[in-house]
Amino acid sequence: MQETILYTRESPLSQNLCQAFEKKQLKVLSIPLIKTVALSFTVPQQTYDWLLFTSSNAVNYFFPSKMTDVKAAVIGEKTKIAAQQAGYEIGFQSYEGDGDSFVNEWLAFTQEHKTPSGRPLQVLFPRSKIASSKIISKLANAGIEVTDLSVYDTVFPPEQEGVLLQAINTCSFTYAVFASPSAWHHFYHVFEKSNFRTNQKYFFSKIKILSIGPVTSRAILEKGCKVTLESRVYTMDALIEKFLEER
């Protein structure tokens, strides 16, 4: 019997990964559980030394704000490419996918956290409305002045609720992949309306959960569910490739 993987991300799978699934005789059930929407914002008029981008979405929703003369610090290759395409100079890139590692590496890179004149570094941080404030707190504790700017939000696409509910009720997938705590929370919210809501242990014994990284895994574990596979490199491509290698 052909197994099915529930893919919950907004962006589609690459052609290479689709072909890899076909070779493994895996069917993909795509039900996006995240939708990004733009927020209106105004950039405070002041001098900034750095822009911090932790996702390509942050770059895309912040652009075309005209600040290409400010150096950008980014997480990962996709964010770097998006920032370069928007015309930003990459002054620092972290290859770790979590915010804590990113901040630690960047703080070490900037060393004194001040300008040559002795002024504290001024950082503009465009981000998701629901993103964790840990990065801001950590930077502030290091003496850096951070301007927090929400440029987009992530919401649950309401048109997907019925589709997902049917998939859960009919146990239509063997694997489920989650790339953010938000995607997991949206999935679990619908699960609580399903026929299995009073028998969680049975339902989750029938599926295997794949997580993009430790932050998402923590959200899953908090609901008493097991993570079968967690990616060491926090990208969707790396997670899927690892899954296909180990399957």
Automatic annotation (TrEMBL):
Entry keyword Lyase: yes
Residue stretches making up the Tetrapyrrole biosynthesis uroporphyrinogen III synthase domain: 19-241
One example of a Gene Ontology biological process annotation: uroporphyrinogen III biosynthetic process
Gene3D superfamilies: 3.40.50.10090
Name this polypeptide is given: Uroporphyrinogen-III synthase
Keyword vocabulary terms for this entry: Lyase, Porphyrin biosynthesis
Species assigned in the record: Enterococcus casseliflavus
InterPro entries noted in UniProt: 4pyrrol_syn_uPrphyn_synt_sf, 4pyrrol_synth_uPrphyn_synth, UROS/Hem4
Class of the enzyme per the UniProt entry, highest EC level: lyase
Organism classification: Bacteria, Bacillati, Bacillota, Bacilli, Lactobacillales
Reactions this protein catalyses: hydroxymethylbilane = uroporphyrinogen III + H2O
Known pathway: Porphyrin-containing compound metabolism; protoporphyrin-IX biosynthesis; coproporphyrinogen-III from 5-aminolevulinate: step 3/4
